[in-house]
Write a structure and sequence with these properties.
With 183 residues, the protein is mostly helical. It has two domains: 5-82, Rna Polymerase Sigma Factor, Chain: A (Orthogonal Bundle); 114-178, Arc Repressor Mutant, subunit A (Orthogonal Bundle), CATH 1.10.10.10. The chain contains eight helices and no strands. The protein has helices at 5-13, 17-39, 42-59, 66-102, 115-127, 131-142, 147-154, 158-178. Helix 1 crosses helix 2. The longest helix has 37 residues, at 66-102.
Amino acid sequence: MQYKDEDLVADLLQRKEKAFTEAYRKYHRYVLSYCYRLLRDMREAEDVTIVLFRKFFELMPVLRTVDDMVAYLKIAAMHECSNRRRNKRVRYAMMEAVEMAAEEDDGSTRLVYDEGLALQDLERIIFSSGLRRSQVLRMRYFEQRSYNEIAKILDISISTAKEMRVQAIKYLRREIKKEQYLP
């Protein structure tokens, strides 16, 4: 079925499955190419595109025209790609800090971490921080969910979700220093 733009928006607002399929078919390549231009990594761009359409279909913003939908997807893509780049830089910075902490004064290394092992240690520490706090961290940083989504999923307020993230980060810093991963 070929949708007219007005019918597509109307059916999307009524949450009709065919409209979602048509919107995905019609705008998938546009969003994917936009994400690829921002990330320069096809695998990451594909992941972001899937996440964006999933969020779009779950949260369904109020639309008046197809232009509103395209604008929403483009802005959401820009933010999601920015978050991915920032999180990637944070992971690399963490790895550098772990490597610097492992380096002795004479230049030798007492611990050698590959990224997978360091992330395993990080996950172990995160999950020891308590179930709710670890869920907030996992959803915020590994799944790139918004505070609104986290609050909705965990059935808590947005401010509680933010506070749990702050508490979990503080706990994480203490544990990393205690286990001498960071100087």
